[in-house]
Amino acid sequence: MLRAGLPGRWPLLQALLALQAVGRALGRASLAGGPLEDVVIERYHIPRACPREVQMGDFVRYHYNGTFEDGKKFDSSYDRNSLVAIVVGVGRLITGMDRGLMGMCVNERRRLVVPPHLGYGSIGVAGLIPPDATLYFDVVLVDVWNQADTVQVSVLLRPPLCPRMVQDGDFVRYHYNGTLLNGAPFDSSYSRNHTYNTYIGQGYIIPGMDQGLQGACMGEYRRITVPPHLAYGENGTGNKIPGSAVLVFHVLVIDFHNPSDPVGIETLSRPAEPCNETSKLGDFIRYHYNCSLMDGTRLFSSHDYGAPQEATLGANKVIEGLDRGLQGMCVGERRRLVVPPHLAHGESGARGVPGSAVLLFEVELVSREDGLPDGYLFVWHEDPPASLFEDMDLNKDGEVPLDEFSVFIKAQVQEGKGRLLPGQDPEKTIGDMFRNQDRDQDGRITAAELKLKSEEDQERVHEEL
């Protein structure tokens, strides 16, 4: 209810505009039969939690029903389907309502009895409020804030380990439930089954959320209370966030990263024996791994297949971050790798992997073999025999078919004189070698056709020159 009389037929429904109060005549109606000196307040519902109470100068939003002593209704915000939104304690409301709202909690319900001298006095409001009327209000407070309010952050759950916190420039993936201050929901990422993904500190989200996510850890659960001047202001947005509404977000930070982040590497254990050689680019390795999201959601595991994963480091067979994290390992070493999305599956994600997701790997190097130079299928450990073709021509008929070639190459590997490209089927590799040497593709290699890879490379150089 607003103060004082209004010109003509004032629609109390809208109103609540500020006018000066008239007189302070004693009320003629009271609970005990005598005049009331002040507002009578009955707090008939007090919420368990009350983080703040209404104070002078606060902006409040509330619903009310207004009746006379006989129960006849003279006004109701419910009939207009519109909350009263106003600053209290600065003369914009009748004095009795100003006093009756002080100290009120959100979701609290009060019954106020306002004597005439704290209402509309001996004049009343023509056609609506008779002179010297005692007024009865049932009020429920929906919202309260102050222009001086800042973002309020309450940490509800923080993981025991927090190696790094969110800061400006980070890209964050988080889930949230959003409610108004009275608990009415307006949005939830869970309902879309998709995290909200955004950069922090770059103006992509409301300022209050930008501030409220600063300093959060991966896996942290926090409540962020945002006043309207740091949210959607006086106009609100959509049909669920009204103007001048305080917003409450319950946020779970799934993961975050910075575009400049490298692979995070933590050694979990090393073998007891001395380690003279570690994995390097070009090596063929076998390793076990478990892969999950940072919130513990399990994605993939080599143990599901009953065998280690195989890869040649630097051959673009695995994501770049995993390739980097597997380098420099001893056989038997275990590591934990944190791989940012720009070194994993990027913004688009992959099968089972959300876009922009940070991945967590636990890896164990099972075996390692030296790789071959790029383009080589076989290398000699020492100089090849001077009579290479003669040694390869087992039946001395001047030509080498695939079976003779295969027997010869396998013998060199068995005797430790050379080695095949690791990680491939030996039969396929030998077959590829044979086809490379069989220049005319007639199924036989002649002395004129047989060339070492190094000789072929040298010939190409001369041709290019």
UniProtKB/TrEMBL annotation:
Cleavable signal peptide: 1-27
Catalytic reaction list: [protein]-peptidylproline (omega=180) = [protein]-peptidylproline (omega=0)
SUPFAM superfamilies recorded: EF-hand, FKBP-like
EC number(s) per entry: 5.2.1.8
Protein name from the UniProt record: peptidylprolyl isomerase
A single GO molecular function term of this UniProt record: calcium ion binding
Localization of this protein: Endoplasmic reticulum lumen
InterPro entries hit by this protein: EF-hand-dom_pair, EF_Hand_1_Ca_BS, EF_hand_dom, FKBP-like_isomerase, PPIase_dom_sf, PPIase_FKBP_dom
Keyword entries, A-Z: Calcium, Endoplasmic reticulum, Glycoprotein, Isomerase, Metal-binding, Repeat, Rotamase, Signal
GO cellular component, one term: endoplasmic reticulum lumen
